[in-house]
Amino acid sequence: MAGKIIIIGAGPSGLGAAYRLRELEYKDWQIYEKNDYVGGLSASFKDDKGFTWDIGGHVIFSHYEYFDNLLEKFLNKDYLEHRRKAYIWMMKRWIPYPFQNNIRYLPKKEAWECLMGLLSASRRKTAAVANFKEWILATFGEGIAQYFMLPHNLKAWSYPLEEMSYSWTGEGVSVVDFKKALRNFFFLREDISWGPHGIFKFPLCGGTGEIFRRFIPLLKDHLFLDKEITSIDIEKRQVISNSQDKIPYDVLINTMPLDKFIKIAGLTKFLGVANKLRHNGVLVVGLGFKKNAFSDKCWVYFPEGNCPFYRITYFSNYSPHNVPGGGYSSLICETAYSEFKPPDTDKIVEDTILGLINTGILSVDDRKHIVSTYLIDAEYAYPIPTLDRDNALDVIQPYLKQKNIYSCGRFGSWKYELANTDYCLMQGVEAVDGILAGNK
Questions:
Q1: Residue 277 pLDDT class (50, 70, 90 cuts)
Q2: pLDDT tens digit string along 282-340?
Q3: What is the CATH number of the domain that holds 292?
Q4: Do residues 264 and 314 share a domain?
Q5: What residues have CB less than 8 Å from 141, skipping those under 6 apart?
């Protein structure tokens, strides 16, 4: 028997682990969450004006039958299904997402430069590339890199692309070859089908967080909210909470950020390695309007410098229950920050409104229709796949495994390429299967 299992964090990974333990009828476990709510970065909040807000533009799609079945069980029929309508706004025009598949929408000069850049890239001899920036240039050529890929990624990551790996790009970036781009250009084909979230689900009520709130009745005897783990004694196998409770464990499932875990566990020998794990933050600005929806789009990317945000979501389009009633609408706008571009929380709401006006999403007159503003500071938003990341993880994770500690989830595993909601939940499920059944 595994003995007592403690789970730190009730985000998707922690809840996935907890649900799997209950599903397998295992009794000796507890889950601790520092907040008074569950869901982690997938939580949702309702403001005093009746608007629901997510921590960014979440959509639900899946790579796993297990996750699909769980979603159907928890939501029953309480969800909507949408076909993605995603765009880029640049050069004062709409370009369907992904950009590199739809360069026919550019002005002729810029479209020609993108096509010639792709042609040059396709003719180049394969050469080793050292970082994400070099990969972009080698894969797409100068045109697409200059007009979209470099400015967009720099804005979204808020981190030097020369210091990032490209190992994560498999499902994260659409790669288009020259022949396909040329065919789309001359035959005026709109190429919008790329990606796993072409069709996605969204809860009817309560935002993305509603999915995870529905775990609570099943886990309530084992779930402890407002209980932050502040210290860990790995040798004694006990965790200490903010109320000074000393809780023993035999196996630990960790989903808190790995760099924080190293610090509170007193693993000083790994502090230097943990410092190589970098992340960005995102300021999420929600704007609620007493006005009908501005568009039927789902989300839009903004690579240019005339606005602070890299993406907006037409959030009221995801469900009519995200707003107080008919005649209302809402936008979620995301601005990334890091040590290379510090946040300005005092100005971000006003800067966001000005950016929406600059880009034509709002008119100056639309200001008077704003009836709610909501700001969320997601300090840990995305784990950055830096050049040093994998080496750091190769040192930390095997040591933790030897100590019966399974660190998983968006920031527990520190892998952006495994950070989608379904991946995170399944990491928790698979951690339990590894603990109880020895599965990989």
A1: very high
A2: 999 999 999 999 999 999 999 999 999 999 999 999 999 999 988 999 999 999 999 99
A3: 3.90.660.20
A4: no
A5: 114, 116, 117, 118, 119, 120, 121
If asked whether residues 236 and 371 sit together in one domain, one would say: no
* Tally of domains within the chain: 3
Angle between helices 65-75 and 421-437 (to 10 degrees): 110
- Write out the chain in H/E/C secondary structure: CCCCEEEECCCHHHHHHHHHHHHCCCCCEEEECCCCCCCHHHCEEECCCCCEEECCCCCECCCCHHHHHHHHHHHCCCEEEEECCEEEEECCEEEECCHHHCHHHCCHHHHHHHHHHHHHHHHCCCCCCCCHHHHHHHHHHHHHHHHHHHHHHHHHHCCCHHHECCCCHHHHCCCCCHHHHHHHHHCCCCCCCCCCCCEEEEECCCCCHHHHHCCHHHHCCCEECCCCEEEEECCCCEEEECCCCEEECCEEEECCCHHHHHHHCCCHHHHHHHCCCCEEEEEEEEEEECCCCCCCCCEEECCCCCCCCCEEECHHHCCHHHCCCCCCEEEEEEEEEECCECCCCCCHHHHHHHHHHHCCCCCHHHHHHEEEEEEEEEEEEEECCECCHHHHHHHHHHHHHHCCEEECCHHHHHCHHHCCHHHHHHHHHHHHHHHHHCCC
Entry pTM:
0.94
Query: Do 266 and 402 share a domain, yes or no?
Result: yes
**424 and 292 together in one domain:** no
pLDDT digits (tens, 9 = 90+) for 187-206: 556 655 555 667 899 999 99
- pLDDT digits 0-9 by tens, 395-431: 999 999 999 999 999 999 999 999 999 999 999 999 9
Burial 394-433 (b: 16+ CB within 10 A, else e): eebbeebeeebbbbbbbbbbbbbebbbbbbbbbbbbbbbb
- Do 127 and 181 have their domain in common? yes
Q: Which residue has the tokens 């100056």?
A: 364
Task: Determine the pLDDT at residue 193.
Answer: 55
Task: Check: CB of residue 330 under 8 Å from CB of residue 286.
Answer: yes
> Quick check: 43 and 37 in contact, CB under 8 A?
yes
Question: What domain range is 284 assigned to?
Answer: 47-62+79-84+197-204+279-383
What six digits make up the tokens of 37?
């709510």
Does 209 map to a domain?
no
77-91, 118-132, 175-189: least confident range: 175-189
